[in-house]
C-alpha cells in the first residue's frame, strides 16, 4: 500500500460546541445517526450530530458492520412478501405490520442511496437467516461494507472508535471477515490472506510513522468511515464530548436538545426535530436490574464501556415517549478473558461462531446439555435464560472441548487463539484454572470446574455417539442450514458434530452477554416517538437501539440491528423534510430517489 499523506479536507476545523440552533439535532454518531444527518442535509436542512464520547462511531464502529437487508439488489430471487412471511412467522403475535412493511419496502432503496456517499456493500454468499428453517428464510440478506483506506479520513481517523478485539490482530492488523475466518483454522487461502495482511502493513512505512494501527478500515469501521467522510465533505458538524442531559419542549413540541460539553451546559435549538439514536441501556446496571429477565452483570456486555447507558431512552421517556420491549436484548454468550497488554482488565469476548464447531459442547453447571449449541447467538442466549429460570445452573455455563477443537479454533473471537498459534505453553499462567481449565481426563476436568463427574461423562458419551452417527437426537445440532454454514466444512458426517475424545480436555465459563438492548422508545413506521396513547411526540424521533426493535424478541439475521437503524434514520429525515406530524413515509422509491 502506497504512503498517503493526510488530505486537507474542507471544513476540517469544526466550531467548538456552543449554544446554537439547527433544523435537526441528531444525538449519537453511529451509522443510523450519520445516515439521518446526511439525508437531512440533502433536503436543505441544517443539522448537527452530537456524541457524548470523545470518539465517534458508537457501537457501529465496534460491530461486524453487517446490515440485514431483505430483497436487496444482489439476491433477485428474494421478495418483500417472502421477507414479511419470514418476519411475521418468527416474531409471532407481536409483529408490527406497519413497521415491518416500512423496513422491508425501503431497506434496499436506502442502501442504494447511501452508496452515493461512497459506501459500497456486498452480500455474504450462503449466509443463512438465523431461523433458517422458517418459511420465507433465505441466504445473502446480510450485507457487508467493502474495506476502506482510513487515510482518506485525515485526522478524523484517530477520532473514530476502534474495532473490537476480534477484528484487530496483535493490536496492529485489521482483520476483515475473510481473514478472520480463514486464519485460525488454516482454511484454504489462509497463507495468501496472512501474507497479504503482513505485506500491506509492514510495507506502509509512512503510515507506521504516524501510528502502529493498520490504516485499513474493516467491518464496523468500514461502515462508519465513508459516512464520516461524507459528513465532512458536506460540512455537517460533529460535536464530540457533548452529552444529552435533557429535551426542551415549547407549545407541546420538542424544540431543543440540552447538552453538557466538558462541564458547560449548552442549548442546541431544533427548529424541526431531534433524532435520538444513542444506543440502548446495556451499560447501565440499574436499568439492567430493573428490566432484564434475569440478573446479568453489565461487564458481560460486548458493547463499549461508558456508552449506551440509556440516557436517550430515559430523556425521551421524560419528554412523553412511551417505552416498549424493555426486557428484550440482542443476546450473545461470551467468555471473559484478561487483556494481555492491560493489567487488571477483563473483556467479554463473544462466542459467536465457535459454538457450532466439532469436538465441543456446552453444558450447564449440572453437566447437562440444554440446547443446540450451534444455533444463532441470540437464540442461544434465550435458551440460557430459560435454563437459568428452570434450573438456576445456566449462567454461567461451561463450554467443553478437546485438543482437536483447540488446535483448529479460537475461543471468544480470538481471545484464546488456536493451539497452532497459541500453544498451551504460551497461554499466560494466570489464566489456567481461572479463565480456562485443563485436565488429561474428563473426571479431572469435572473436578476442577465443580460439575458432577458422572453427568459430564454421560453428556460427552452421548455427544460422541451423535458425532459418529451424524444425528443429534436431543437438539438437532447440525441439521439446520445455519449450523451447517458455520460448522467445519468437509467434516463428516455432520459439519457441526465431532467426538470429544482427544486429551487434554478443556473448559471455559460461558456467561450470558449481549450486543446491546433492543427495548426503548415506542415509534411508528417513520421513527416518530409515540406516547402511551399512541399519539406522536411532536418533533421527536428515535432510531436504532434507542427505539424499541421492530423484531420483538427475535434476531432475524446478521446485521438486524444496523439494517433497520440505517433505514429508519433515513426515513426519519425523510419524514421531517416532507410530512406533517400525522403522515407516514410510504416508500423511499416514490419520495427520495
Sketch the major β-sheet. 8 strands, mixed
CATH architecture of the domain at 335-514: Alpha-Beta Complex
Percent of residues in β-strands: 15-25%
Q: What's the gyration radius in Å?
A: 24 Å
Helix tally equals 17
Please report the total strand number as a whole number: 23
Instruction: Give the uncertain stretches in residue-range form.
Output: 1-13
Shape: globular
Class per helix and strand makeup:
alpha+beta
The share of residues in helices is 25-40%
Overall pLDDT metric = 92
N-end to C-end Cα span: 36 Å
What fold name goes in the CATH topology slot of the domain at 335-514? Flavocytochrome C3, Chain A, domain 1
In terms of topology, how is this protein built?
Layout: E1 20-27, H1 31-42, E2 47-50, H2 58-62, E3 67-68, H3 80-91, H4 97-114, E4 121-123, E5 142-145, E6 148-149, E7 168-169, E8 173-174, H5 177-182, H6 190-202, H7 205-208, E9 216-217, H8 219-233, E10 238-239, E11 242-250, E12 253-261, E13 264-276, H9 285-291, H10 311-318, E14 323-324, E15 329-338, E16 346-350, E17 360-363, H11 377-391, E18 397-402, H12 403-408, E19 437-439, H13 442-449, H14 453-469, H15 481-486, E20 505-517, E21 520-521, E22 528-530, E23 536-542, H16 562-578, H17 588-591
Parallel strand pairs: 1-2, 1-13, 2-10, 13-23
Antiparallel strand pairs: 3-5, 4-5, 6-9, 7-8, 11-12, 12-13, 14-21, 15-16, 15-20, 17-18, 18-20, 19-20, 22-23
Helix pairs in contact: 1-8, 1-16, 3-4, 4-16, 13-14
